[in-house]
Every structure is written in C-alpha cells, then in structure tokens.
Specification:
Blueprint lengths: L1 E5 L6 E6 L7 H15 L6 E4 L6 H9 L3 E5 L5 H11 L5 E5 L2 E11 L8 E16 L2 E15 L8 H9 L2 H14 L10 H24 L3 H4 L5 H12 L17
Parallel strand pairs: 3-4
Antiparallel strand pairs: 1-2, 4-8, 5-6, 6-7, 7-8
C-alpha cells in the first residue's frame, strides 16, 4: 500500500492510503493517491515530499498539473541532473549554518531543464556533519559523522529559502518514523486481520482515525493531573486498553544498566 501524511504539524496526521495492484509499482499507486488527495483536499497542502523512487518526469508532471510543487530526494536515478548541478556547485561557495545538532554546508541552484520534467528544477545539495557516540574497546567515544544529501524541487527560491527547503526535504522521514514505525510497533499496522482487499483498506483507514483521535486527546485535552503519569501517547493508549478490559493500569518506568548494544 501507498500512504501519505501531513508534514510539519503538531500531530502526526496520516490522511489516506492506496493499494498497490499486482504488476504495478509504488509510483503507479501513488499517482492515484495524489490525484484523489488533490481533489479531496484542494487547499490543504501546497507541496508533495517524496523519496528518490518518485524522481521521474511523469510523477512530477502529474503533481505540477494538479497545482502542487514537489520536493524529491535525488540520487543516482537522475545522474545527468546531478552532474550538471555538481559542475556549478564546484564553482560556488556553500552556505553554512548549524541546526538540529549538526553543521550544514549547502549548495542551492535553480533553473535546471530536463527532457522528461516539464517544469524547471532546483537542486539542493548538503553535506551535514554531526557528532555521534560509538562503542570502541569497551568504552563510549564521540566521533564525527558526515552524510551527503541531494534534493530536486520545483519550488523557486523566491518562495522558499535554502534553509526552509532543507528542512522540508528532511521532513520526509516523518512518515517512516512517526507513522509506519510507530503504527507498526505499537498499533498492529503490520498485522493482517483479513486477506480481503477491501477489509485491509478499511482496517488501515480505521487505524489512521484512531491514531489521530488519540493524539488529539493526548496533546490537546489531557488534564495536567494525568499528564504527570502519562507522559507518552503509548502510556495513554495502554491506559485506555486497560479500561476496556476492566483493569487498572499504573504507568511504570523501566531502568536498565548501560552497556554496549
């Protein structure tokens, strides 16, 4: 299945899901999903953020035709664009800033033309350095880690600055960490209760609604007296589940010794 969620909000909000039909890939499913989303939520969002699999002309052209801009991870699937951009970056001085515990060097150029994409593209490259702790010879030491990122976007600089585009590009991980990972580990998203395609879709949509309502109650309606004992959404859902079974639930803290993983 292909899913989508609203980014940069106080609540992790999954919006819709679309099945992947036998014989097609994820992008084909996503095109139907994007088309439906743009009809149902015409003014709810302006930009579609996606990973490198969606860096293709037909998908980007579809989004632009629906009035939406895109931010897509750029990898070796578009080598000519990377080569052209790198040729310009080699003659430029990068921007520098510190954010989220890392130092960022960024190169940002717009106006690239390609054969398959109808709109001009903007390319952002960053080199990000941060300190991480690793185990060496039985003790924990700090080491610098360096990673490189590329993005392609249809958003011009006049509408979105370099730092903001960088932040939007990294926000793609919200669907992996806050939706798929959370729902898979704690909300039984990975469990198939029925093999009927319609039942599978209905289960996922009902799970999305329950997840959203639980977040709204936890972040916007939970009383201060309860917040002292229920510091996480998981603790709240455990309390609700215990109530359904007629049991009382006491939040507890687990403490374990530190050591190598």
């Amino acid at each position: 299945m292909t899913a989508c969620n609203l980014l940069n909000t106080s609540i992790d909000l999954p919006l819709d899901v679309e099945p992947i039909i036998a014989g097609e890939n994820e992008v084909a499913s996503a095109k139907r999903l994007v088309t439906r989303m743009c009809k149902q939520y015409r003014r709810f969002f302006d930009v579609i953020v996606a990973d490198a699999l969606y860096m293709e002309g037909p998908f980007i052209n579809l989004c632009k035709g629906l009035g939406k801009d895109v931010v897509v991870v750029l990898k070796n699937n578009f080598p000519s664009l990377i080569e052209d951009a790198q040729g310009l970056f080699d003659r430029m001085q990068p921007q520098h800033w510190d954010a989220e515990g890392r130092h960022i060097e960024a190169w940002d150029v717009e106006g690239f033309e390609t054969e398959s994409v109808d709109a001009p593209l903007r390319v952002l490259r960053t080199i990000e350095t941060h300190t991480k702790k690793v185990w060496e010879n039985g003790r924990r030491v700090e080491k610098d880690a360096v990673c490189q990122w590329w993005w392609a976007s249809t958003i011009p600089k006049t509408r979105l600055g370099t730092k903001q585009l960088w932040k939007r590009g990294h926000s793609r991980w919200q669907i992996e960490n806050n939706i798929f990972n959370t729902l898979g580990q704690h909300w039984a998203l990975n469990h198939c209760y029925s093999h009927d395609p319609r039942a599978m879709i209905n289960f996922v949509l009902m799970l999305f609604m329950a997840f959203t309502l639980a977040q709204c109650f936890f972040k916007r309606n939970l009383k201060p007296q309860m917040q002292a004992g229920l510091s996480t959404l998981i603790a709240l859902t455990n309390q609700l589940y215990a109530g359904l079974n007629g049991k009382s639930y006491i939040p507890m803290l687990r403490v374990s010794g530190a050591g190598p993983p």
